[in-house]
Amino acid sequence: MDALLEMLPLLIPILVLDAVLAVVAALHVLRHPHYRFGNKAFWLVVVVVFLLIGPITYFVIGRGEEQ
């Protein structure tokens, strides 16, 4: 328990950044209809279920052309 309390100042910014990244990715999925792979439902599941890896994967691989 003491180790967790010592790491808390490091964990809080990481968790906040992860939550912001997930929200931005989910909003981008909802607003843009073009994806390189999959569809809107697939990318929403990836972004929400895989919290840290999902949004990063979406922005690197899944995001389509902006039109």
What's the helix and strand layout?
Layout (H helix, E strand, L loop, with lengths): L1 H30 L8 H10 L3 H10 L5
Walk me through this protein's architecture.
The protein is 75% helix and 0% strand. The chain contains three helices and no strands. It has helices at 2-31, 40-49, 53-62. The mean pLDDT is 88.
Count of distinct strands: 0
Largest sheet: none
Beta fraction of the residues?
Answer: under 5%
How many individual domains? 1
Shape: elongated
Please state the structural category: mainly alpha
The level of helicity is: over 70%
* SSE sequence, one letter per element: HHH
Supply the key terms.
single chain; 67 residues; mainly alpha; elongated
